[in-house]
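Q: Please design a sequence for this.
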């Protein structure tokens, strides 16, 4: 059985870590290197580091911090933000990334996923999908840090990114981002039904029961920001809670 993972999400903006609310307002939550060290010590299974600067979303920015993080942490790191070429991905792998996260470019040029997978392996390619509820309660996809609407359906895009080489899918609810009110369970159900590779869910975790709900619906990993930024919560305690509910974990 594939064991489940607990993954802190770190959003990089202007050299600091921030926590957003619905992809809009944000709060400063610390230093990227120190925070990553803490998560590593607290038995996180992986880290996701995303540069969300809307005006300077270049992998070169992530690269500066990634090198220091990789030197002091002992967990796999998935890094993203502005990846638009194989060279961008290679630059992150060179300084310690184990995986790269691609979002906007997967719409404009889905063959980029294939190019990265051909060179580094599909296990190193994470396709990130941001979804927001529409007025009719359907899901609309967004790119460019939530600013641009994409005219493809959730299911069509999932099939596309997998066909082009993504080894994992990261699905994020724009509406639940930072709300701490629980993951969007319908979004998880629909994504899981269409997704044939490991699925990471993100957006909304406010307490450990929310993690269990997502894992019970078939998520392979739960990604969390606010849960670990605010309150006395950490990956080790989350694992203890889930272990008590007989959920198989990667490490404990």
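A: Design:
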């Amino acid at each position: 059985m594939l064991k489940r993972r607990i993954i802190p999400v770190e959003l990089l903006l202007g050299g600091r870590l921030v926590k957003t609310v619905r992809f809009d307002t944000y709060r400063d939550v610390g230093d990227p290197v120190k925070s990553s060290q803490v998560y590593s010590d607290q038995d996180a299974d992986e880290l996701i580091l995303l540069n969300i600067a809307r005006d300077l979303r270049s992998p070169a920015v992530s690269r500066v911090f990634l090198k220091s993080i990789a030197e002091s942490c002992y967990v796999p790191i998935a890094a993203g933000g502005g990846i638009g070429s194989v060279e961008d991905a290679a630059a992150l792998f060179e300084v310690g990334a184990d995986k790269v996260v691609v979002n906007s470019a997967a719409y404009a040029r889905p063959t980029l996923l294939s190019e990265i997978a051909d060179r580094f392996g599909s296990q190193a390619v994470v396709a990130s999908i941001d979804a927001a509820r529409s007025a009719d309660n359907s899901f609309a996809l967004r790119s460019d840090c939530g600013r641009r609407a994409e005219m493809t359906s959730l299911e069509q895009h999932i099939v596309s990114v997998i066909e082009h080489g993504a080894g994992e899918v990261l699905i994020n609810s724009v509406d639940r981002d930072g709300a701490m009110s629980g993951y969007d369970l319908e979004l998880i159900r629909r994504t899981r039904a269409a997704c044939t590779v490991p699925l990471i869910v993100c957006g909304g975790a406010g307490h450990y029961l929310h993690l269990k709900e997502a894992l019970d619906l078939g998520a392979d990993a739960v990604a969390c920001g606010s849960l670990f930024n605010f309150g006395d919560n950490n990956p080790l305690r989350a694992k203890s809670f889930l272990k008590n509910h007989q959920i198989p974990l990667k490490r404990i």
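Q: Thanks. Anything notable?
A: The chain has a mean pLDDT of 94. Residues 5-244 form a domain with the TIM Barrel fold (CATH 3.20.20.70).
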